[in-house]
Amino acid sequence: MTQPILRFACTLLLSAGTFVASAQTDPDYLAAHPHATAAHFMPYPDSVPGPAPAPEGFRPFYMSHYGRHGSRYHVSSSVYRKALRVLKKSHEQQLLTPLGESLYDRVERLTADAEGRTGSLSPRGAVEHRAIAGRMVRNFPEIFAPDGGEAPRIVCRATQVPRCILSMAANNERLKELNPALRIERIADIGDADTLRHTPFSNDHSKEFTSRATEFIRPRLDCSRFAASVFRGDVRALMNDEELLDFARNVYALYAIAGCSGPEDIDLDDIFTHEELVLLWKAQNLRNYLVCSASPQYGDRVVPDARPLLRDIIRRADAALAGDGPAADLRFGHDVALSPLLSLIAFDGRDVRCDDPERLHEVWCDFLVIPMAANFQMIFYRNAAGEILVQMLHNERCGRLPIATDRFPFYRWNDVRDYLLTKL
User: Fold this and answer.
1) 174-199 tens-digit pLDDT
2) Cα atoms in the 13 Å half-sphere on the side-chain side of 11
3) What secondary structure, in 3-state letters, does 319-354 show?
4) H or E, element range at 153
């Protein structure tokens, strides 16, 4: 199961255009790539397009980066426990079909594997960040492994959440393997919390976001086929409609997380039909859009939460250009900080507003914006005349800002800086 998901993720991002419009509007796309329905639990691809080569006469000298932690276990153990409780009770009463018994066995194994690991970085998450670090050195040796001179200084900062600290550690381990002389500073201070994960509005309204997703899926998802495939007899003897919907969504959550944290021989790919998975994903996609993007309902309050992070990016870039900063500023945090940042600066149209849940997937897809280990990189280049250009990558793919440039994907830093300051 694991390798097909990774191959899909690779294909998905390799085929991306400026906003992957063809993938998002093609009605057959999810049918051809069913694991896209894993939403923001999509593992990071093991192969990506990479940056454009530097313009003639320019050399990269500084990187500013923000990365989501890598693949993880569910942040709530209740997802595992709730699904297992229903299946165990039904097993004891001999009310499970053969598929239901198989599901019970797999959920039991997933739950056991996740015991004590709530929210933890999975082994796959460490691999993702090691691979990204390797490509940093390969793509920008002038920054991370220059010939001669003093060894580069790299400043790495993470939120105090263990999965972010371990993602930083995986990145740093690989960097040091490739250049042992690197001088790496690692910071995980509470004082950085307001910069690396400033999400007061999202924190206060998380239940409201979930409620809107439930309102969307409740009238659309018919759970009768799913129930009949798992349970013998009348399922209403076991639970009411609301409880059945909750059970189905918990099983869907385990389906989604299995690709990035569970044992490699376990998947839940045979539990839902494609149509059911698409509906379940649309509800999750809606919730993620409300939580961390420019929705008409909440975007005006969610997106400004990224201003402290953007201010940090500008300030540290100014220091680097003045010769007072490191060769790279690497930040490790969360999707709820990365996505608002992309929306705030309108990178590749991530500030899109859509008030139709049925059509949201045509313009915004969580598995493209915030897969596991999603990242945003700004690479700064300088020529002998002192001209500064910057190239911006989202998930290691070139993207656009809504400002003029005569040499895309490169922009004049002064133009970018002036534009970014308007967002503060």
Assistant:
1) 999 999 999 999 999 998 989 999 99
2) 14
3) HHHCCCCCCEEEEEECHHHHHHHHHHCCHHHCCCCC
4) strand 153-158
Task: Supply 297's token pair.
Answer: 């309902």
- DSSP-derived 3-state class of residue 262: coil
Closest by CA position to 66, among listed 195, 182, 152, 153: 195
Query: Beta partners for 249?
Result: none
Q: Of 340, 339, 266, 333, which is closest to residue 303 (Cα–Cα)?
A: 340
First to last CA, the chain: 44
Q: What is the pLDDT of residues 71-123, one digit of tens each?
A: 999 999 999 999 999 999 999 999 999 999 999 999 999 999 999 999 999 99
Whether the predicted pLDDT of 126 surpasses 70: yes
Which residues in 381-411 are b (16+ Cβ under 10 Å) and which e? Answer: bbeeeeebbbbbbbbbbbbbbeeeeeeebbb
For the beta carbon of residue 359, count every other beta carbon within 10 angstroms. 12
Is the pLDDT at 9 greater than 60, yes or no? no
Rounded CA gap, 156 and 144, in Å? 13
What the chain holds in terms of domains, given with CATH numbers, is: 2-422 (3.40.50.1240)
Summarize the confidence of residues 270-293 as an average pLDDT: 96
Residue appearing with tokens 């690197």: 182
